Amino acid sequence: MHLHVRGQEMEGSLSLLLLLSARRDDTTSIHHLLEQAKGAGVRPSGYTMEKLLNTYIKRKHLSTAVSLYGSIRREYSEAPLEHWTVLHFCTMLVESEKCMEAMHTLREFVETGKTPEVPPKNTAESCKVLLSKAAEVGGYEVAKEMFELLLLGRLVDPGPQIVAPLLQCKLDRSDLPGCIEVAEYIYKTFNTLPKRMEILIRLMQHNPPTEENLLPVLRRDGSQAQQGSDLLGHMFELVQACYGPAQAQHDLLFASLESGYPAAARLVLQTLGGDVDSHQILRMCKIYAKNQREVALKHLLVASKGMTNIDRLRIYELLLDAYSLSNKEAGEKALCLWTSIQEEGLTPSSTFPFQPGNTPGEV
């Protein structure tokens, strides 16, 4: 008011007051400020109005944000909204189960806005969040249409993390045939295959692997497989096409370990033979140990028993690391490991935490 009386620029102070009022959820003050500004012939900048909109979006004020978004689109057409603002607005709509409104908003923005020459780097995470929410709330069809609009507007590149929600919504609904169908579409269209391990694990949990139904998959002969393992064979072929036969077999190995089928894991190891990638296995074992996934390491010890191309001593050491991290009966478990190592005739290194002179509590 002081600036207005003196005839000085009041846009900066108006912007600050509007944002402060929005953070305090004081809609009455916001309305009063805008009326004052209008009476004084002062028009808030498009930048100020967009910041006000973003404040409402962050505070999940749906009705106010919807009203303000419409006003900005009508009255500030010369100052288009930033991409991420529209994406955040659409995400809020989806979270409020207004998927059709979100779809209409995104389509209108894409069709009437200026398409960037390359996808903006700062929109990738916003696109990922929007698609994840769309998949969760609206299902595959909504997420797919949102995804196609994002590509049409050149708002994002179709990388693994961006297309993953299309698969996740099928997994969340236990639609395994649909999941394989989407995985094939993603591979053939975008040459990537996200969530492949999760899909393989779910397929094995759905139809437990046996020698009878797993060998045809490993030999790429799905004609002898049962219906449940046909899905596994199809997924295996997709992984082969995308990452090569060796990686596909290693993926089956890790899926067998993580889903609790050491016999199937042993069958994969026997099929790999001399092509076992010991470095990849060791890398996965370190991940298991770090995440305290003791069971997967135990399954690998069972699956690899008697095999000389697997560093079983290192697996024992990593399993002990997992025990130490979990801190649950670590001493007693370490003693059992030590006994198993001795029975196999392995010689632990001097850095092995459990030695005969230690008591279990010192491990």
TrEMBL record:
One of its GO terms (biological process) is regulation of mitochondrial translation. This is Leucine-rich PPR motif-containing protein, mitochondrial. PANTHER family: LEUCINE-RICH PPR MOTIF-CONTAINING PROTEIN, MITOCHONDRIAL. It comes from Scylla paramamosain. It comes from the Eukaryota. One of its GO terms (cellular component) is mitochondrion. GO terms for molecular function: mRNA 3'-UTR binding.
